[in-house]
Amino acid sequence: MLTRRARIPLAFAALALFWLLAAGWLSAPLLYLAQRDTQSLAPPTYGARTVIVLLGGGTRYDDAHRLVPRADVLPRIATTAAIYSACKQTGARCEVVISGGNPQHHEAAEADNYLPYLLQKQVPRADVVLENRSLTTYENARNVAALLQAERYDALILVTSAYHMPRALLDFHHFGLAPQPVISSARHVQVGVLPRYENLVSANIALHELIGLAQFYVYRSLGWF
Questions:
Q1: 17, 61 in Cβ contact below 8 A?
Q2: Host H or E run for residue 146
Q3: What are the residues facing 55 on neighbouring strands?
Q4: What is the mean pLDDT of the segment spanning 142-168?
Q5: What is the distance between the alpha carbons of residues 198 and 190, in angstroms, rounded to a whole number?
Q6: Measured on CA atoms in the order 211, 212, 216, 222, is the torsion positive or negative?
Q7: What is the pLDDT of residues 1-52, one digit of tens each?
Q8: 155 phi and psi, to 5 degrees?
Q9: Dist CA 50 CA 53 (whole Å)
Q10: How many domains does the chain have?
Q11: Is the pTM of this model over 0.85?
Q12: Residue 208 falls within a domain, yes or no?
């Protein structure tokens, strides 16, 4: 449908955009925008009954075709286990809620898949609650709020990646929850001349989160949230 004269500039523009993303020059500011509000968070405080919410981030099949957590999820599991251990040392009653369904339609939900990894880090099964139905961050917040509605707790802690935390907090606040945010890990971009696949991954993640934030505000203005 385009004339030849328009095709060549568009092709050069597409190549330039690809290079800016893959070399990091555009990926870096996008990722900064997605993670900008998570740079200086205070350490969590614990109450007599503390609930730690671990948010899902997907699963994948490894080389042996075993279903495993995605790379960004492993720090979330490790951070949750460390917070649980610190919580127990205060003498508090501590509980972990793993929230994540099966949006990728794999053989198991995220919560069920993450559970063995958490148990390996000395978190007792009796202190873990599985919320394995939510398919989005919005549903994570909604379903966790429903779980906690009838139970009293003194401290609520939310664990997820830096890029995911701003959107997660918006959704949890929407359902009347005010968790203490704890960042498990942050993504970084390497800016240079050569294209890098990881820079494209970071750009994709950042765009997903920024669009999700914009969607939240649009839906709320329309009264849909």
A1: no
A2: helix 137-148
A3: 99
A4: 95
A5: 9
A6: positive
A7: 566 777 778 888 999 999 999 999 999 999 999 998 776 678 899 999 999 9
A8: -145, 140
A9: 10
A10: 1
A11: yes
A12: no
For the segment 96-107, the average pLDDT, to the nearest whole number, is: 97
Question: In this predicted structure, what is the pLDDT of residue 154?
Answer: 95
Q: How far apart are CA 216 and CA 225, in angstroms?
A: 8
How many residues are there in the chain? 225
**What percentage of residues in the chain have a pLDDT greater than 90?**
85
Task: Identify which of 169, 164, 158 has the alpha carbon closest to the alpha carbon of residue 210.
Answer: 164
Which of 136, 66, 141 minimizes the C-alpha distance to 97? 141
Q: How far apart are CA 59 and CA 73, in angstroms?
A: 8
**How many whole angstroms separate alpha carbon 165 and alpha carbon 71?**
17
Give the domain CATH number at 158.
3.40.50.620
Structural domain harbouring 46: 40-188
DSSP assigned state of 43? P
CA 66 to chain centre: 22
- Give 67's strand partners: 61
